[in-house]
Amino acid sequence: MLIFDQCIESIAYLATLLTNGLVMGIIYALMALGLTLIFSVLGIVNFSHGELYMIGGFVAFFLLDFFAGLNPIIAIASAGIATFIIGAIFERLFLRPMHEGKVQRPGEYAILVTFGFAFFLQYLTVAIIGPFPFKASRFVDLIIKPLFGVVTVYSTRVVAAVIALVLIAILLWFIQRTWTGRGLRAVSQDKDAAAVTGINPLRMNNFAFGLGAALAGMSGAALVQVFSWTFNVGVPAASKSYVVIVLGGMGSIPGALIGGLIVGAVESLGTGCFPDPSRGLAYQSAFGLVIFALVLLIRPQGLFGRKL
Amino acid sequence: MSSRTIARIRSADLRVAVPLGGLLILAIFAPVLMIALGVPPYWFHVSIVAMYYAILAASWSLLAGYAGQFSFGTMAFMAIGAYTAGLLGQYMAVGVVPGIILGTLLAGVFGFIIGALTLRLRRTYLALFTIAFSEILRLVLMAEHRITEGPDGLSMVPLVNTTSKVPAYYIHLALLVFGLAFMYALVRSRFGLFFRSIREDEEAAAALGVHVVRYKIFVFVVTSMIAGLAGAVQFHYVEIITPNVILILQMSIVITMAVIGGIESLIAAAFGAILIQFGLEIMRPLLNWRLVVFGLLLMLTLRFFQNGLLHPVLQYVLRREEALAETVAKRKLPSESEPA
Amino acid sequence: MHRKIIWALAIATVALLAGACATPTPETIVEEVVITEIVEVAGESTTVEVEVTAVPGRCAPMDVADVETIQIGATAPLSAPGSVTGGLVMQAAFRIAEDEINAAGGVLGKPINIILNDTEGLPERGTAVMERLITQDCVVAVVGEYHSAVGLTMKEVANKYHVPTIFAETYNDDITGVGYPEVFRIAPTSTFTAQMDGKWLSEVGDYNGDGKMFVVIVAENTGYGQGQVDKADKWFPEYGLTHETFFADLPTQDFSSVVTRINALDTVPDAILIKVTGETSYNLQQQLYEGGIDISQTIVVANQVALNHDEFWQNVPDGNFAVVPRIGPWASSATETGLAFAEVYRARMGRFPEAYAFEAYDSLNLMADAINRAGSLDPDAIIAALEETDFEGAAGRYTFPYGSGNTPADAGQPAYMWHQWPEVPLLFLQYTETGQSSDDIEVIWPATYRTSEGAIVRP
């Protein structure tokens, strides 16, 4: 038996897996968007992305816990602002010297210093708030009946996905329509040419890193009502984002969106259709990683990437 | 290279040989001293583990510092070596030495496959892919617990059949010395020249007729095999291995050791590993804060002491610059300068 | 020139290897030395000659007159990848026990000192930590540990250095099954918990009335989860149960595919057993409800973390009617000592003690009791005293009926009963109201402690 019977026989079964996979995919896309934004402007992969996501979730949780009845939108926005500030400070202290040529080997330095930052944030969180799980209560009290009577959806996740869609829309508007957004795009295409037109690339770097961090933080804030939150939630989330941006093409915004959806769907279908029920779930993360290997083999620049 | 430069390097080699030789002699007689002074066997264990980390940190610094390849996969290759030796011993009653050799070879084979897959691409891909690979490997070792014993750990045949830790100490010391000598020879050879030229300027190296990808893969395979060898030997000594050794946390420890030592010098990286292993042991009472300190130290070292903390000290002690420090040109970001 | 250096290093390496093989090391010679020691027996003026086996490396004092404080080792996971939550709980319990013992005058008139070491949940760390405790900190005995995989390697070191050890929260059968004289355990074995699950489920019977007794197990991919599943595979058929297993890697967040798979099973399960610990169990449980598991057809059996009621209701708001197995005493079944401990613990941690808090607390008290009765720090005397244990602890009355005098084989018991406390209390509790405090929870099994009508409360 190569795949689980239900996968061939039952449309409802497949539709349920696919729907849930796509809902998760939208959330992955939001997170990957931050990563891809940072990559396109600064030219580095942020290995602390997962930890910023974790911190965003905690900021939202503690605000909601402390101020009873706080509007979740404010909590999410505050999480975004907090992670923006953390990201921008980190960029200013540790990444700007690299762009100013004060660091000998910027490629290795960028990987290492963001990785060190991840390590630091994670253990700082454990040391301060401990390893215990926290979870915010539902943002919206809503129970969604199974679609068409057979496709079960998870209401908290749907809420998170809607938040993610709104944030993605705002981000796209910002990048396409505002002056700062155009500045970001200009820097990502050609730093020197952008500088000629009066854009300060260093400032754009700082802003882009902060914005990327804020996107990670806000995806965390949207999900803290869905999953139990601990210091290490960022690790699996970040490795999914890496798969998404490699699949979509590093630095590509449509790539991050489509890549997120594909990874979400593949993980869900992979787990649901793995022949041995006892091991399907254990391999859940592995399915996304298999895509990674395939992309590198077949189309290393990803779906929407510029030719490498 | 002018004859004067050569003469200078040679006299510099002598200056490095004397203190290092002294250290080696000290390391050889250390057990005698430790037993005479009644040092508890536990510190033998710490020394043995420190030497194992030293090999890993040195091999990682060969890869990252000399060849400019950024891999998170050292622990995965280490585990391939160890699990191969362990599984062969468990199911086919293969002896310790053939098991270690086969484990080393298999780590090399995996290194070749991954190298061939990723080293054609931008260096970030190697970093991303090795993270992913480590995670897959860990998942497989966990999920297939009926074969690998999963998180309960796979028992391994003892390295030497005795309760004393002294033979294991000497075996690890020999491995470290041999490993460092081998890597040093590699760096100083023609190959070393090629892959340093690749690190400094890949396009120029390619233009001069260096088979860029081929040399990159060569270094990657060699360091994978060193990691595999170290893992197979270490876990025959520990007698049990679990998939958790591949956790990214363990990898961060190796990287931090090399960075704090100095990734551009094999010896500094190895010393960094030994010092940090003892440091972590002493910091145990700090519990979780010890890793916070560790992370902060990593970031600050990177930002302000790009050659590591130990490397300048070693340079001063050894009073030489050329052979330890590899000249590094300032370069642009990889995304801008690297070709396909 | 550098070529010469490399040659010199290579030759040195070969010489080293040769040296390592050829020279007999001073340590290996003194493998087993039997020395004769004069021991003064307390209270009597006569001296007796006792043979004491000295193990090289072990540095614990034999005579209590030689020490200022008695050092006792303790282990728990205090950093990742170990279960830090479990480790912190055990740490608190050890400290409470230590303070109480010292306040009551210590052991053999000397204060005790607990040296707590972090095993990180890694078997290889277990070996190293035991070596450190025994050869450097010179502990006379060791108590504790949370992870089975770590316990498996710790027992080897305990045996090698002949150090009495009580394991607190390690379920793996083999820890006592090998029959080492030094090793005792007060946690239940995996076999025991699987049998209890089976007994309770068979008493509940066919919950959804479809004519089949079918359960689903979702287990974490760790020593705990895999051990539970192995034993369920072995024992559930004996109780007339069939089951299907799903393994999850820690920390999985998204369980929707598995919930979909469970929903698509041909038979509606009578129960879903969550053999997953910590926050992952909350994620799974909440997603089961959101994914449409019908609690009138299927009982959801949560992990014992669910008894932290504030945390539970925050993380699993839909978790009403969940059943929670509880190892160790509950408020309604605890002894007086247990209730006193629970009060101190609540003042410190803000909740009723977890099973492993009771176990950590009792393991230290048991050891102190045994050393007191042994009247010396000699490991043989302590082991002999432990075998004779009859002690009212926080979790119940402790005895180790199967040991050197009465081996499990002679008594017709399975091998894992060696030095095993046979009467580990295990209760099945059930929440019956959303937001209920776990103090008001119903006890549904076993019948002796039952507060509910039957073996299950239906919604």
Describe this structure in words.
The complex is a heterotrimer of chains A (308), B (340) and C (459). Chain A has 308 residues and is mostly helical. Helices cover 73% and strands 0% of the residues of chain A. Chain A has 13 helices and no strands. Chain A has helices spanning 5-9, 11-42, 49-66, 72-99, 106-129, 155-177, 179-189, 191-196, 201-223, 234-248, 253-273, 277-280, 284-298. Chain A is globular. The termini of chain A are far apart. The model of chain A has no long low-confidence stretch (mean pLDDT 87). Chain B is mainly alpha-helical and 340 residues long. Helices cover 75% and strands 1% of the residues of chain B. Chain B is built from 15 helices and 2 strands. Chain B is globular and about 55 Å long. Chain C is of the alpha/beta class. Helices cover 38% and strands 17% of the residues of chain C. In chain C, the strands form 5 sheets. Chain C has a 5-stranded parallel β-sheet. A 4-stranded parallel β-sheet of chain C has the order 9-8-10-11, sandwiched between helices. In chain C, α6 links the parallel β6 and β7 (183-185). Chain C starts with a helix and ends in a 14-residue tail after the last strand. Mean pLDDT of chain C is 85; it is low at 13-52. Chains B and C meet through α1, α2, α5, α7 and β2 of B and α1, α2, α4, α5 and α8 of C.
Structure in a nutshell:
The complex is a heterotrimer of chains A (308), B (340) and C (459). By secondary structure, chain A is an all-alpha fold.
Describe the secondary-structure layout:
The complex is a heterotrimer of chains A (308), B (340) and C (459).
Chain A: H1 5-9, H2 11-42, H3 49-66, H4 72-99, H5 106-129, H6 155-177, H7 179-189, H8 191-196, H9 201-223, H10 234-248, H11 253-273, H12 277-280, H13 284-298
Helix pairs in contact in A: 2-6, 2-9, 2-10, 2-11, 3-4, 3-5, 3-9, 3-10, 4-5, 4-9, 6-7, 6-9, 7-9, 10-11, 10-13, 11-13
Chain B: H1 3-36, H2 41-66, H3 74-92, H4 96-118, H5 123-143, H6 145-148, E1 154-155, H7 166-188, H8 190-200, H9 202-207, H10 212-238, E2 240-241, H11 248-261, H12 266-282, H13 288-304, H14 310-318, H15 334-337
Helix pairs in contact in B: 1-7, 2-7, 2-10, 2-11, 2-12, 3-4, 3-10, 4-10, 7-8, 7-10, 8-10, 11-12
Chain C: H1 2-22, H2 26-29, E1 33-40, E2 47-54, E3 70-76, H3 84-103, E4 112-118, H4 123-136, E5 141-144, H5 148-161, E6 165-167, H6 174-177, E7 183-185, H7 190-204, E8 214-220, H8 223-235, E9 242-248, H9 256-263, E10 271-275, H10 278-290, E11 299-301, H11 309-315, E12 323-327, H12 336-349, H13 355-374, H14 379-387, E13 391-392, E14 397-398, E15 426-430, E16 442-445
Parallel strand pairs in C: 3-4, 3-5, 5-6, 6-7, 8-9, 8-10, 10-11
Antiparallel strand pairs in C: 1-2, 12-15, 13-14, 15-16
